[in-house]
Amino acid sequence: MKAGTKLLRAMSAAALSSTVLAVSAVSLQMVDIPAAHAQAVSNIQVQGNTRVDAETVRNLTQITPGQNVSAAQIDAAVTRLFATGLFSDVRISRSGGTLVVQVDENQIVNEVLFQGNRRLQTEQLEATVQTSSRSAYNASTAQADVEAIRAAYSRTGRSDAVVSVQTVPVEGNRVNVVFEINEGDRTRIEQINFVGNNAFGDGRLKEVISLRETGLFGFLQRSDIYDEDRLRADEEALRRFYYNRGFADFRIVSSVAELDAEQNQYFVTITVDEGERYSFGNIAIDSTVAGIDAQSLNDELETQAGSTYSAEKVEDTLVNLTNAVAAQGYAFAQVTPRGNRDFATNTISIDYVIDEGPRAYIERIEVRGNTKTRDYVIRREFDVSEGDAFNQVLVQRARQRLEALRFFERVNVSTAPGSQPDRVIVVVQVVEQATGEFSVGGGYSTGGENAGPVAEVSVTERNFLGRGQFVRVSAGFGEDSSNYSLAFTEPYFLGRRLAAGFDLYRSENSSQSYDIERLGGSLRIAAPITEDVTAQLAYNYKQETFGDNTGVQLFEPRNPGDPLVPVLDNGNPLFSTCGTPNPAAYRDQFGNVVDFNGRPVTSPNFTRSPIINDAICDSPYSTSSISYALTYNTLDNQNDPRDGLFLQAGQEIAGIGGDAQFLRSTGRGSFFSLLSEEYDIVSQLSAGGGNVTALGDDLRVFDNFFRGQDIVRGFEYQGIGPRQNGVAIGGENFVNASAEVTFPLPLISRDLGFRGAAFADAGSLWGFDNAGGYQDIVGDDFALRASAGVGLIWASPFGPLRVNYAIPLAEEDFDETQEFSFGISSRF
Fold first, then answer.
1. Closest CA to 412 of 423, 427, 425, 401
2. What integer best gives the mean pLDDT of the chain?
3. DSSP state letters, 115-164
4. Which among 360, 399, 356 has a CA at the least distance from the CA of 379?
């Protein structure tokens, strides 16, 4: 038994020894693991490099000889080398104490070439891709460039463009990178549909968004090209449209663009949830800041109880209140609107609460995305600058101003933390758009004696050299007329919100009675008094040179009813000159009685107005004047208004040198209102008037007002007012009023740009100071003219075209009427 016990003890000891040895072995292995992965490196050997210096590679690994290097450190070194973009492959291995770095260098781009591009210029594509000459070629970057090129073509309406890239080796381990492009056809928007809209029809909502369906003149426009970014912007435009018309709960459920690959057309569907329509309920101002009297701020309210809810009115009130309390010295006061919906009455009560906001300062304003527009052009739209108290309301108002410039497709203003807790960085991200325009327009002028086809060519740049300046050069030509002009405006003169500029022009017109050449210009400056009121001041100069257009032999009847015979002077034929009695008719070489332009004259006793003749003989005649005006403008759209008021009144004082001496006073106004949102019916009420008074000598005839179809349609240009021998001599006073309704034409797509109009006009031109004792003057007394008619308006790619048919309802016997008129025009 003792022997068995000894045997058992021996076996236990052996087992224990084995266990200890095993544990020891494991322990040794665990100790050896980090040792195997963190061995010391005595040397770093670089292989495969031809252009990149070996020492540069060693430095990039961030590993030094004598250092214990682990597997994780080797992996990090490989990552750093790849990140340089210099290598297509990197491998690191050990050979004893030597670390071997094997690299395959990327080839150097010799040249970037584009083949097959016609719609996009090479310069545009070079700005799109990241691959550039003298850089290391990277396959993944080149593939990203392929997608960037496809996206650029997609923005031009060519969604089916095919782009591929290949490399062509050249000497010196370099390659030419070639982008092969098949531009394909333009992918247009065939149809835009709205779902869920009840308050407004599809046609009205299509007016709100910028995307357009392909129309008859699709080849002249770009708005029928699908762009996802533009669709997102249109979503925001729809939100603002609804929010400003009472639909505070409006939301866009979805907006989807489906591509028909076979037809290469997009179908856009926008699904909306309009919600209920609200009006403003109770409006109040509460202040928790000691020293601010809430009641004294009521005049700053743009929101009124009972009126239709409008987010824009709320925003305007926030700006007004913010500026008002800041002017009182409370820079950190924060105005917050708190709305309370009453679902039973569909009203929203607004309580504007003024609190002491957090003390945060603007550390800097950071502008991104602008390649053409200078930074200062963007910064100057902010009413706050670096170091000022941060105010979210004023920052967002700056965003609205930037959008109104029409320099950018999109403007986004956000904030980022500054270097200190009370510092804020304002980040302005913009996407620029084209600001230059080349326009060729044509039409038919119904301007009386100058009636006929007209054409105009103009070049306009709204952001000249990225400085925000406006430049326009134009030239116009008609049957008997020509004009040239140059306009320049600096919107921030002397670093202030003062719009200063100049205009230069030259024109020539030839009429039945006389020729006239005008050469002149003006220096002007305009300053905003409020957001809606602007004051303007200008110096004007022009010189007029008249020709009587009568370089022909004169004929006259010896007795009334007798045939025309030559007028002789000492037996010699007499030609028309200033100071000579000028009958306005003669017999040509064929024996026909014609006027001075060779046109047949039905009455041989017709004579030109002596008043006009005397004025012509004053040629050349210069006018040097100063003019000023006040403008109040709340129109929602300057080109196609549907709501708002436009008022302007001003005077021109001539006599600052020059020949003319007069005081001219004018005023006009237009009120626009939507009679029907659903059917887009717009009403317009307009009125105007003027007076010109001599300040020295008698008023010259050409300083009078000449009016006709511009104030009362249905009459010729210069068709109403005082006349002598049938020739318009202008009047010292005029008044006019007009009522008009415009509407979309039924059964015609609104995308074609056609609208109908019905109107009624009334007005008068009268008054003539006959200090010279001229005879045969008629029409110098006040007499009302009136007309009614219909019109067709076309927002054509060449400019706004309009056709009117007006029937005179009240006229004088000597007036000249014209029921049909057509031309390039805009009325307000």
1. 427
2. 82
3. ES-SSS-HHHHHHH-S--TTSBP-HHHHHHHHHHHHHHHHHTT-TT-EEE
4. 399
Is the domain spanning 361-432 CATH 3.40.190.10? The answer is: no
Secondary structure of 58-87 in the HEC alphabet? Answer: HHHHCCCCCCEECHHHHHHHHHHHHHCCCE
pLDDT at 556: 56
pLDDT tier, 828 (very low <50, low <70, confident <90, very high otherwise): very low
Q: Which residues contact 178 (CB under 8 A, 6 or more apart)?
A: 113, 114, 115, 165, 166, 167, 168
Q: Is residue 245 within 8 Å of 209, Cβ to Cβ? A: no
Do 534 and 638 contact (CB within 8 A), yes or no? no
Whole-number percent of the chain with pLDDT over 70: 82
CATH code for 188-273? 3.10.20.310
C-alpha dihedral (548, 554, 560, 562), degrees to nearest 10: -150
Predicted model pTM: 0.67
| Overall fold of domain 108-182 | Ubiquitin-like (UB roll) (3.10.20)
Distances (CA, A) of 493 to 373, 399, 407, 633: 17, 21, 19, 22
> What's the whole-number mean pLDDT along residues 521-538?
93
Residue 628 tokens read as 């000023």
At 97, the pLDDT band (50, 70, 90 cuts) reads: confident
The class (CATH top level) of 279-356 is alpha beta
Alpha-carbon distance of 826 to 428, in angstroms, equals 36
Burial class (CB in 10 A: 0-12, 13-18, 19+), 235: middle
Q: What pLDDT, on the 0 to 100 scale, is given for residue 604?
A: 39
Q: Is 632 left (phi over 0), alpha (psi -120 to 50) or beta?
A: beta
* Cα–Cα distance measured from residue 493 to residue 527, given in angstroms and rounded to the nearest whole number: 10
Please compute the mean of the pLDDT values over residues 159-163 and round it to a whole number: 82
Q: What is the pLDDT of residue 8?
A: 35
Q: Where are the beta strands (DSSP E) in 529-563?
A: 533-547, 555-557
Neighbour tally for 525: CB within 10 Å? 17
Q: Is the pLDDT of residue 94 over 70?
A: yes
Contact 599, 512 (CB under 8 A): yes
Does the fold of domain 361-432 match that of domain 279-356? yes
Give yes or no for a cis peptide into 620 (omega within 30° of 0).
yes
> For residues 87 and 81, is the Cβ–Cβ distance under 8 A?
yes
Assess if CATH 3.10.20.310 describes domain 39-105.
yes
Residues 6+ apart with CB under 8 A from 99: 41, 43, 44, 45, 61, 63, 69, 74, 92, 93
What is the DSSP annotation of 714-748? TB-TT-SS-EETTEE--BSEEEEEEEEEEEEPTTS
Q: Identify each DSSP E strand in 318-435 by its residue range.
A: 333-342, 347-356, 361-368, 408-417, 423-432
**Which of 397-411, 504-518, 776-790 has the weakest average pLDDT?**
504-518
DSSP label at residue 390: P
